[in-house]
């Protein structure tokens, strides 16, 4: 009888990894972490004591790049040699199936970077399929790590830029046969392509036969007034009592701010009893900007650089934060770590950049996830 | 963050009346909550005099078009289910009859009222689900041997949650009965379903999985109770139409008569199904 009660008191498994470094440090891994998290659906930044956004930041936020939504795209089109040579090998091509749930449907994703050589352009097609589809498809994969005793989910990884994956190889023929003839799979895809250099053909023209639409990320700006915010000390990740708050308290406070929760624990409020962690200061205003869409890591790195450049001129703010949420239904979280959806599919990271260009990086995942790197 | 509450499998509806208006709102609510398969339940209580088992209603008769689950592009799937409330061993004979309409249902469930019938249901009867009473104190205790035999045969136990929404006494009975079941079966082969007659009595799949924690299931068992176990029940029901679950027969469409006459009798196909 006591086992269920004990279980009720425990919260579902979740992980929060906090690390601290300096932006200009030669071994700082902030760019690698951002590049490792391929699929981002929401980016928000909060600048305390700021009423108007400076021009360089505004131009970066409005130029977050466009993404495309293709409906009913057969999966074998992503394995076609023309697609690979036109987009996968010449730039970073990101694709994620849209409107599919990771815990019940088949999901497909195209990852552009290799964990070992981040500058080389490669393409890995990752399929997360259920048991019936796996048995009908005929490609080799491994069981999902979060499947339990009865395996219900399999992950298939196909390296598209492998030297053995050219038109005459047996491997290519098998993959094409499985995806085109044996079990044709079709998804709606969110696509984006980052490339440097000459333009050549674009995704819009390549997929003109299918229903492709270009979308711009949605941007909202708001100014928060009279906000209580915690005092932070860049050297103390754990916080010192009476002097500064810890990284976990900041994380919770940030979540409360993004959810528009009242922070003063009024006695008549039924929604929340959350208070701002002590010690705290009262800010007159803070600038909050949220960008929603299919956002590429390369754009996030540009935004992060601009936020660091915000402190080039003397400012009232002690720190700024940049929060990036990943898709709840993507098959991977960081690099090729598998991502699952137990009761929530959160995989997000948060940068806190201080005036001295020290930064805190917090990476959080939910229940069915590997530990972030 | 994408927050789609769309989910995998079943939810049981309890309706033996044909009120089309309320039913379409039930299906819409199901699709909105994110269930992808719904089972319509017909309850046959043998205590009343001589009940004939009706043919199952086909889903296309109920609704002209099935509601589409938001966040996906597929419509909801509707299957049919029959529940037999048995309080006497002679009531089980209908399951062995080959000519009745029982074969047309996708899932067959039995609701035993006595310990002997529970034992018979776990060991002998050809059913997919055994319902556990949640509205009254359990008339008998569960014992491990028949429950383990049922698990080996692929039979699942069903706990309802809608009576718990309606009344606080039934809430106590639901929790205590479910706890004793889960203690004996160790969390395996349990599903949680609703017996909703109105859209307000439905709850989302993740909420129902959380309710499973209260019944003593672990996190993964509770989620399986709403998803993979239900899929297993549907497959178990399908094997009743096959030979031992291995061979599946389908009627071949009859060839047109005129083509056959041109061939001499000896050359006509020997097997004519």
Automatic annotation (TrEMBL), chain A:
GO terms for biological process: endonucleolytic cleavage in ITS1 to separate SSU-rRNA from 5.8S rRNA and LSU-rRNA from tricistronic rRNA transcript (SSU-rRNA, 5.8S rRNA, LSU-rRNA); tRNA 5'-leader removal. GO terms for molecular function: ribonuclease MRP activity; ribonuclease P activity. The lineage of its organism: Eukaryota, Metazoa, Chordata, Craniata, Vertebrata. It holds the Pfam family Ribonuc_P_40. GO terms for cellular component: multimeric ribonuclease P complex; ribonuclease MRP complex. It comes from Alligator mississippiensis (American alligator). Coiled coil: none annotated. InterPro entries: RNase_P_Rpp40 (IPR013893). This is Ribonuclease P protein subunit p40 isoform B. It comes from the Eukaryota.
From TrEMBL, chain B:
The keyword Iron does not apply. Its main location: nucleus. It comes from the Eukaryota. One of its GO terms (biological process) is tRNA processing. Transmembrane segments: none annotated. The keyword Cell inner membrane does not apply. It is found in: Nucleus, Nucleolus. One of its GO terms (cellular component) is nucleolar ribonuclease P complex. Keywords: Acetylation, Nucleus, Phosphoprotein, rRNA processing, tRNA processing. GO terms for molecular function: RNA binding. Component of ribonuclease P, a ribonucleoprotein complex that generates mature tRNA molecules by cleaving their 5'-ends. Also a component of the MRP ribonuclease complex, which cleaves pre-rRNA sequences. Belongs to the eukaryotic/archaeal RNase P protein component 3 family. Component of nuclear RNase P and RNase MRP ribonucleoproteins. RNase P consists of a catalytic RNA moiety and about 10 protein subunits; POP1, POP4, POP5, POP7, RPP14, RPP21, RPP25, RPP30, RPP38 and RPP40. Within the RNase P complex, POP1, POP7 and RPP25 form the 'finger' subcomplex, POP5, RPP14, RPP40 and homodimeric RPP30 form the 'palm' subcomplex, and RPP21, POP4 and RPP38 form the 'wrist' subcomplex. All subunits of the RNase P complex interact with the catalytic RNA. Several subunits of RNase P are also part of the RNase MRP complex. This is Ribonuclease P protein subunit p30. The lineage of its organism: Eukaryota, Metazoa, Chordata, Craniata, Vertebrata.
């Amino acid at each position: 009888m006591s086992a269920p009660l004990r279980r009720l008191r425990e919260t579902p498994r979740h992980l929060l990894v906090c690390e601290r470094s300096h932006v200009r440090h030669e071994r700082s891994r902030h760019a690698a972490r951002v590049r490792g998290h391929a699929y981002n659906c929401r980016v928000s930044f909060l600048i305390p004591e700021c009423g108007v956004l400076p021009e360089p930041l505004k131009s970066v936020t409005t130029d977050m790049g466009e993404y495309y939504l293709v409906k009913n795209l057969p999966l074998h089109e992503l394995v076609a040699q023309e697609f690979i040579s036109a987009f996968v090998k010449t730039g970073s091509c990101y694709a994620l199936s849209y409107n599919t749930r990771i815990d019940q449907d088949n999901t497909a994703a195209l990852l552009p970077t290799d964990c070992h050589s981040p500058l080389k352009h490669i393409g890995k097609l990752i399929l997360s399929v259920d048991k019936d589809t796996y048995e009908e498809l005929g490609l080799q994969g491994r069981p999902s790590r979060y499947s339990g005793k009865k395996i219900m989910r399999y992950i298939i990884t196909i390296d598209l830029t492998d030297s053995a994956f050219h038109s005459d190889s047996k491997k290519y023929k098998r993959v094409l046969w499985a995806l085109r003839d044996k079990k044709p799979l079709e998804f709606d895809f969110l696509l984006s392509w980052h490339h440097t250099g000459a333009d050549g053909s674009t995704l819009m023209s390549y997929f003109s036969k299918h229903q492709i639409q270009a979308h711009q990320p949605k941007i909202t700006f708001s100014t928060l007034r009279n906000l209580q915010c915690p005092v932070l000390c860049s050297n103390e990740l754990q916080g010192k009592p009476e002097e500064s708050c810890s990284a976990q308290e900041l994380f919770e406070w940030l979540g409360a701010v993004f959810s528009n929760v009242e922070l003063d624990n009024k006695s008549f409020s039924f929604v929340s009893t959350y208070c701002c962690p002590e010690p705290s200061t009262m800010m007159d205003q803070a600038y909050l900007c949220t960008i929603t869409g299919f956002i590429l890591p390369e754009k996030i790195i540009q935004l992060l650089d601009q936020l660091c450049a915000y402190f080039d001129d003397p400012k009232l703010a002690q720190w700024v934060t940049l929060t990036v949420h990943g898709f709840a239904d993507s098959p991977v979280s960081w690099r090729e770590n598998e991502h699952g959806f137990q009761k929530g599919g959160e995989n997000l990271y948060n940068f806190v950049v201080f005036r001295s260009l020290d930064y805190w990086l917090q990476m959080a995942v939910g229940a069915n996830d590997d530990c972030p790197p | 963050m994408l927050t789609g509450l769309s989910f995998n499998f079943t939810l049981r509806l309890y309706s033996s009346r044909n009120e089309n208006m309320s039913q379409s709102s039930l299906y819409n609510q199901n699709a909105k909550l994110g269930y992808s398969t719904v089972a319509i339940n017909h309850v046959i209580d043998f205590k009343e005099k001589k009940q004939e088992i009706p043919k199952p209603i086909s889903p296309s008769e109920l609704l002209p078009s099935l509601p589409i689950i938001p966040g996906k592009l597929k419509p909801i799937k509707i299957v049919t289910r029959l529940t037999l409330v048995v309080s006497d061993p002679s009531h089980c004979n209908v399951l062995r009859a080959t000519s009745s309409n029982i074969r047309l249902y996708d899932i067959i469930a039995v609701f035993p009222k006595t310990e002997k019938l529970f034992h018979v249901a776990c060991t002998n009867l050809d059913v997919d689900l055994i319902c556990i009473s949640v509205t009254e104190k359990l008339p008998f205790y569960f014992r491990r041997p028949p429950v383990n035999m049922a698990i080996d045969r692929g039979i699942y136990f069903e706990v309802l949650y809608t009576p718990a929404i309606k009344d606080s006494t039934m809430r106590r009975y639901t929790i205590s009965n479910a706890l004793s079941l889960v203690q004996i079966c160790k969390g395996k082969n349990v599903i949680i379903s609703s017996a909703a007659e109105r859209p307000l009595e439905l709850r989302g799949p993740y909420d129902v999985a959380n309710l499973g924690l209260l019944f003593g299931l672990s996190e993964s068992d509770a989620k399986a109770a709403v998803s993979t176990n239900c899929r297993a029940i549907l497959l178990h029901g399908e094997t009743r139409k096959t030979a031992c679950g291995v061979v599946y027969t389908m009627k071949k469409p009859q060839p047109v008569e005129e083509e056959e006459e041109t061939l001499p009798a000896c050359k006509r196909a020997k097997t004519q199904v």
